[in-house]
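Weekly modeling sync, notes
Attendees: AB, CL, MP (scribe)

Item 1: holo prediction request
CL wants a bound-state model with S-adenosylmethionine before deciding which constructs to order. AB pointed out that an apo prediction alone won't tell us much about the pocket. Agreed to run with the ligand included and paste results into these notes for async review.

Input as submitted:
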Amino acid sequence: MINTHVDYENVSQEHTIQDAMQQGELLRMAMRGEMNSENKSAFGQFFTPAPVAQLMASMFTCQEPVIRILDAGAGLGTLFTAAVTGFCQRETPPEHILVTAYEIDDSLIEHIHRAMHHCEHICATHGIKFTGTIKHEDFIESGVALLSQANTLFSPLDDEEAAGFHCAILNPPYKKLQSDWLEKQRLQEIGIEASNLYVGFLALAMKLLAPLGELVAITPRSFCNGPYFKKFRRDFLHTMALQRLHMFESRTHTFKADEVLQENIIVYATKSQERAEQVIITTSSDIEDDLFSTYTVNYQQVIHPNDPHSFIHIVQDSDGAQVVAAISQFHTTLADLHITVSTGRVVDFRAADYLRMEPEAATVPLLYPLHLQHGVVRWPSPGSKKPNAIVDTYQTQSLLVPNEHYVLVKRFSSKEEKKRIVAVLYEPDQFPQPRVGFENHLNYFHQEGQGLDPILARGLVAYLNSSLVDAYFRQFNGHTQVNATDLRSITYPTRSQLEALGGQIKLQALSQAELDELIKKELLPMAESEEGPTHQLTQGK
Ligand SMILES: C[S@@+](CC[C@H](N)C(=O)[O-])C[C@H]1O[C@@H](n2cnc3c(N)ncnc32)[C@H](O)[C@@H]1O
């Protein structure tokens, strides 16, 4: 057992700022693997490495003489320590820093005391008054109660909470919320729709900020486009002015040792309804990387003004800007094309009685993602773990579609696949059966439940499989899941452009490079001349 006890009496007077961060970092590393795994998963505990905490803290610009800081889900106190030490190092430091740290887990409270102790000491050496408050409470419960009380006439709030925080620094817990969970219901009481705990934390924190208050948070990237995050995204973008996004190029590195496989981003925003004209996008290869690229893009390129889903697009560099410029030449939506994209109707455990491992009399093909191989439909797949067929009977009619042309896209791309969108043409000639079933892990493009025109479908497959669409898709989708909403949000070439494309190609015969060249020649004669916004490499934070 690693000793994580800190002897407060002997915290030496000469502790410097670096000591404070280093001690926290040593503790974080020592605690890895030693932590109670039940708490780790119940409370979504992944602690922020010190360099990331310092990067986050460096984003605050607050110049108030008295600064109130919120750290919700404080863990070991790394984030508020980074914020406090950051403010201490200012040329004109504040006169008074107040920190309110919420933490639910008993076992972490002593570490937060330690961190508060460090902060107090460091502030004292800089002539700054420090007030630390540890709230050993459930932030959701307390935050909701605070905000409900704040709306009543007689507000019993603490002074700092009543006035609002100037800065909130968060690495919130990540946990999916089921609809009957108390956290979800509590948040709904004050109008917050949260499909994940981290979004609940962000929504509460932004509500607890003072006007022009600053929020910096490291979170999974899923809120940028996930369909379940739409309401939050809208509220967030309405209440907060997005200023900066920071990406880590390496997908898993930031919390690698903690086995966090989500793609993480740092988001920095101020509480104001006045939109920033530009958003700064910084990218570093990993947490130790002091050199990162800075790219400034127009706000409208990050959040498209007419996007009903308010997706957040992360345009990282000039290549990314060219992609945006190229895609913005297409204005046709799927609705304009009278095409719909849906998830496959067959949910296998619900239709279990009708599924057959191998085709037999009175069955029709049932397609799973495994049947899409090397750009074509390969069916049946004998000996596969998934059924190959579904009984064609009146009970299954609502699950089947006519055997016509469709475009199929896997909902989850596999790790081996280089591209996120894998589109395949389903051609009816392969199958004598009158109908076909698409399993729920496939998206399929159709026209009111019927097939598509074959040439149009072919053009659509070519467009969806282009590197251009893949690069555009990655700007707003940070995971391997391809939702029907994502596919609906892309703009497409016109019907005649798609048909011209579809008329020209034999899909299987084309390499990726040949396909991209054809797309460029047919659809993008102007793309090369577009200029991107400013791009530079920056040393330090
Ligand atoms: C992802 S960790 C981050 C910890 C710390 N902020 C950091 O960056 O290292 C989330 C923290 O939130 C705490 N937590 C989880 N649910 C909470 C709740 N409902 N109220 C307060 N804290 C909570 C966890 O115990 C954990 O310490």
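Recorded for review: The two ends are 36 Å apart (CA to CA).
Action items: CL to compare against the apo run; MP to circulate these notes.
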